[in-house]
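Problem: given the chain below (337 residues), write out its structure.
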Amino acid sequence: MRAFPPVAIFLFSMAIPACASAKTQACAPADAKPAAVVTCEVPGFAARAYDVYLPAGYSPARPVPVILAIHGGGGNARAAARTACPGGDIDSKDCLHAMANREGVAVIYPNGTRSRLLPNVRTWNAGGGAKGWQCVSGRACKEGVDDIAYFRALLDDLERWVAVDARRVHATGLSNGGAMSHRLACQMGGRIASIAAVGGANQYATTASCAPPRPVPVLQIHGSADPCWPYEGGEAACAQRDDMTKISVDESMRVWATINGCGAPGSAEVLAAEKDIKTEQVRWTGCRAETVLIRVNGGGHVWPGGWAYFGERVIGPMVHGWSANRVILDFFSRHPK
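Solution.
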């Protein structure tokens, strides 16, 4: 058995406060003010509040699109927000929530299941855990936490106090959060309009049937030099403590190509190039829902244009030449349900 102690991930998470605001509350319509940043309880899920960033132009008279931005394994809501900010600067105008807010989109940062010892270290039950497939991730997966029920409760609560455009609820995330986005598309495809996963593939489909009620637009962003979720699948060299395997990106895309009724993948198109890194895009043809892979040749386990939260030795090369935030927002804007 291989042992890769996840010390770095724990230290990273411990350094980051869990919530955007100091006060956690049962939110009400009076809290839904333009440019509000609040932290709200999820009924039935103690200590798993969600952070909400509403756009400055928010009005109850105009339902707002929503992005669920899901943290990686060992992270938390605040970590997810920082990861999608250049340099980790939560106040940057180029953060995911800042860019989305300018376009009239609300961003929600949820919280996974806490570690028993470290409350800011959280994970999602994104699937796997049988027949040699790694359980992704941590306590949440090993204990079978019902994260589908959590997200349903979160959205129900959000719709109680915010005017949500039910046709434009999207999900994205890094690593364990990306894999959780896939699971949401598989099991909540009637409610999730589209997903964009970064550095995390469809582990749920390895041990369960991914059968959404409709084709779901899928964007996968993945580095070929990702040590934490290897592009080719298999064991990871980043904080993995077992000899179980992750699904490959190509197999994950085949799952969605079948679900979405696609034909063959098209030719690769170069999107960006920087030192030692070339980003290519592949679109599948004939799909009933857009199915796209952005392969970052030479890129690591990172959010392109975001925060290199560890050194290259741990997570692989950072990608600076383009913004995942921009690509993801454009993808979501094309896909109301």
